[in-house]
Each structure stands twice: as structure tokens, then as C-alpha cells.
Design goal:
With 328 residues, the chain is α/β, with parallel strands linked by helices. The chain has 7 helices and 18 strands. It has a single domain, classed as Purple Acid Phosphatase, chain A, domain 2, CATH 3.60.21.
Length: 328
């Protein structure tokens, strides 16, 4: 289907477009099981946030796992620190030529590129991020649904022991553009509250843990998630680094699981009194359906493991640019 104009002259996604988000896969049996899960869920698109085969390029095993997908499903990715990007360029260029995918900015060769697919506008950043690229593309984008995807993150923006490898400005550019932020790198799953100004206390966290808001503005609002359970390994929560965090909605790691109950009600720190004590931590993928319930401004997400457990669920609501609306 082609892109559809909304009632506000913005481009809406096709109804119920389903996207799978994964990262950090390697090329073993666990990655194969994640791909089988993705195929079973009936997705339209797969977005892989870096660290593909952990080899010099696409291995036969990695390609065989990806090959379990319906061939009509585009499989697009962002450069990871374990990837030799130049050896994956040909694969992703071929994927970007599948019906419905249109390259709109940047270059797959350079690693920062943007595509549209079924009304979604998706930005990929090369390793380390690309603030000018994000600002330029998002400023000009007429799409309701905008997605920023890259591999790395920051110490505050993953629940493990990773450090600061992407600037706050990279995140803020996508927040101000009203684009959701998909990352990998840490081998667990986590999702923030809605955020506004990352320089504010607790990074401007607000709202409800299961209702994410996307609003372009200065600052805008958005949220980020880490979906790094693509098959490589399973990692722990770092209490030393994160017990004082006040912006987590859900954390799913080897030794800590809290579902929409992670953060104290005043956003002051983590509330571990409601942690889930018994659970199976394993690989899986985040799925988001865009344009659900006959509402072009509504989405719904869930994280599902290869065992079939749904460990997180949330709604996404796109709101208009309040500054722009007030100036009409």
C-alpha cells in the first residue's frame, strides 16, 4: 500500500503495520529461534539494532537464520560495534530494494540512512550516532510515525554496565522530532517512561509506565528501549549504576525483572519492592503495531520471548506539536 495522508495532512502508516526490533544476535541456534518467533508473529518489517553475526560479515549460518523469514519482509539494520559495516552494505542494499521500501536520505554505505515503509519513516545512525542527520531528516518529515534506530547507548539508558557511547544530543534530537528511539548493545530488554528534556532531573521522565507519548517540539517527548536479546548472551542488572535511576518503566535482565513498576511514583529512584521474583529470562524480540484500533495516532507494543512469555506491554500515542498548534 502507498502512503496515506491523514486528516491533518500528515502521512499516516498503513493500519496495523507490525515491526520486530532486535539486536545483538550472533548466528547460532538462539538467533534462529528468535527469527522463528518473528516469523510466527506475522511482522511486516524487521529492524536489527546492530551486532549481527559477530564475524567479519554475514556468515552462512546468519543468512540461513534470516532466510527463515518470508522473503517479502524487509530486514534492515544499524551498524554495531562488532560489525564490519562495509561487509553488510550489500545485504542491506538488497533489503532496501524490496517492494515498499524507499531510501529517502543518507546512504547505506555511510551507515546513516533513512527509509520509508508503509508510512513509517525510519532513521538509521552509523556507529556513534549522527545528530545533524537526525535533526535534518526529522525537521522535514511529514510522517506521523518516526523511528530512530542505532546500536550504542549510554550508561543511564541501559540497565547493565555499558558506558556513554552516544551523546545526549543524539537522543534529544529524536525526542524533539517526536521519534521513538530503538537501541541494542546491552543484552537485555528495558524501556523508559516518556521523556522530555534529558538535561532535567531524571531526564524529564513523566506520565504513566504503560502509555508512551510521542510529540514533536522543543523539547518534544519520546521514549527509548533496549532490545538486545537477539541470541548472543544474557546479562545482569547493575544495581551500583542504576538503583538511583528514576526513568525506567520495565527492566528484564538475568537477575532483575520489573514490569511497569520499576520506578518510584515520584521518579526519585528504583522501587524494587514490586520486582517479579520468579521468571524465565531468555531471548526474544520487541514487537510494535502502528496505527491500531482505526487510529492513525495509536500504537501498541509488547516484548515476547522465544518461550512465548510476554514480559512487557504498552500503548503509544502520537500527539500534535503543541508549539506549532499554538502558533496557527
Amino acid at each position: 500500500m502507498g502512503e496515506r495522508a491523514s486528516s491533518a495532512d500528515r502521512i499516516a502508516a498503513d493500519p496495523n503495520v507490525k515491526v520486530a526490533f532486535i539486536g545483538d544476535s550472533d548466528d547460532g541456534d538462539d538467533f534462529g529461534r528468535v527469527i522463528q518467533l518473528i516469523q510466527k508473529e506475522g511482522v511486516d518489517l524487521v529492524l536489527h539494532q546492530g551486532d549481527f553475526s559477530y564475524a567479519n560479515g554475514p556468515t552462512d549460518e546468519w543468512l540461513a537464520a534470516v532466510g527463515q523469514l518470508d522473503t517479502a519482509i524487509p530486514y534492515l539494520g544499524a551498524d554495531g560495534n562488532h560489525d564490519h559495516w562495509n561487509r553488510y552494505v550489500s545485504f542491506f542494499e538488497t533489503q532496501a530494494q524490496k517492494p515498499g521500501v524507499a531510501l529517502t536520505a543518507g546512504s547505506i554505505v555511510d551507515g546513516s540512512y533513512a527509509v520509508t515503509y508503509k508510512g513509517l519513516h525510519i532513521l538509521f545512525n552509523h556507529e556513534g550516532g549522527d545528530v545533524p542527520f537526525n535533526q535534518q531528516v526529522l525537521t522535514d518529515s511529514p510522517h506521523i510515525w518516526k523511528l530512530c534506530t542505532w546500536h550504542h547507548n549510554r550508561r543511564d539508558f541501559q540497565p547493565g554496565s555499558k558506558g556513554d557511547e552516544v551523546t545526549l544530543e543524539n537522543y534529544q534530537a529524536c525526542i524533539n522530532g517526536g521519534a521513538l528511539i530503538a537501541t541494542g548493545h546491552e543484552h537485555s530488554y528495558s524501556r523508559s517512561y516518556s521523556l522530555r528534556d534529558l538535561s532535567a532531573a531524571q531526564h524529564g521522565a513523566y506520565g504513566q509506565p504503560d502509555v508512551m507519548e510521542l510529540t514533536p517540539g522543543n523539547p518534544g517527548s519520546s521514549f527509548f528501549f533496549v532490545s538486545g536479546l537477539g541470541g548472543r548472551s544474557l546479562r545482569d542488572y547493575s544495581a551500583r549504576l542504576h538503583d538511583g535511576d528514576g526513568w525506567w518503566a520495565t527492566i528484564f535482565t538475568e537477575d532483575r525483572y520489573c514490569r511497569q513498576t520499576c520506578t518510584a511514583s515520584d521518579f526519585s529512584a528504583q522501587d524494587q519492592s514490586q520486582d517479579i521474583s520468579s521468571y524465565a529470562f531468555t531471548f526474544g524480540a520487541l514487537f510494535i503495531d502502528f496505527g491500531v484500533d482505526d487510529d492513525p495516532n495509536k500504537g501498541r507494543g509488547y516484548f515476547k520471548t522465544i518461550d512465548g512469555d510476554i514480559v512487557d506491554e504498552f500503548t503509544i500515542v502520537v500527539k500534535p506539536n503543541q508549539l506549532a498548534e499554538s502558533q496557527k
